[in-house]
Design brief:
The chain is an alpha/beta fold and 287 residues long. It is built from seven helices and 15 strands. The strands form three sheets. The chain has a nine-stranded mixed sheet, with helices on both faces. Strands 8-9-12-13 form a four-stranded mixed sheet, with helices on one face.
Length: 287
Amino acid sequence: MIPKGRLLIIGGHEDKGEIAGQNLKIHKKKISQSHFEILGTLISKIPRAHHHIEIIASASSIPVEMEQIYIDSYKREGFTKVGIIKVEDKKDGFNPLSIERIKNAHAVFFTGGDQSRLVTLLVETELLNTIKKKYYSDKNFIVGGTSAGAMAIPEIIITGGIIREALYKDDLKISKGFNLIDNLIVDTHFIKRGSFGRLAHAIILNPTCLGIGLEEDTALIICHGYKAECMGSGMVILIDGSKINSTNITHADPLTPITVDNLIISILAEGSCYMLKERKLITTKMS
């Protein structure tokens, strides 16, 4: 079944914390575009009297001042109603008032934090089922996520992993995600945190999937589940494992580094597009 709605996955930037030893200094040539602006641009193209977004804050606790930043920023971009749904316990995913708010929303946005927590709280809840139904049936509905919120969107997600000088069999943890799109695995803050090896590891384990490495202030807009357009100041690294010839990942012991050949790497930047099913790069914007 082809979804009618759109996905917006963003590589992050709003996270305030730095991870010691895992950040590279990034020098930018372009002005960053926030996810508020990107969502505002998308929603402004849909004619209606008002635009309503619900922010789901389950991956981390959002302080009151951050809530107000979200509300003010989205309103500046044209959303007339901005709500925040807090899911702090599994039962919150069955709250009839929250479910009704999703039914009336034009966009839903998952914040950053901890993707494992986000998935644990929302998978197999009526709230997530309602989001899925609306995403598949409403051509004007947008599901967005940044950082952990973006990583949680596919069927398979990275929940943890150690970044070393080489890849080792037990260093990566993967799990089931929201399953809003299949055959993708998303990693975020990709360049800044040196996550190439981690995403490559995930693709070696799941070679039918396409790895999406999103740098900060960079996003992919995915239409109909297979047309992806890049936006933002950074790049998106794609890792395709469909042509792998050989790897030792199935029989390597925990102390033997993983090897692989024939991973296919593509780089997207603003204005370029990619057909996810065909694994084909398009260098001009799609109509």
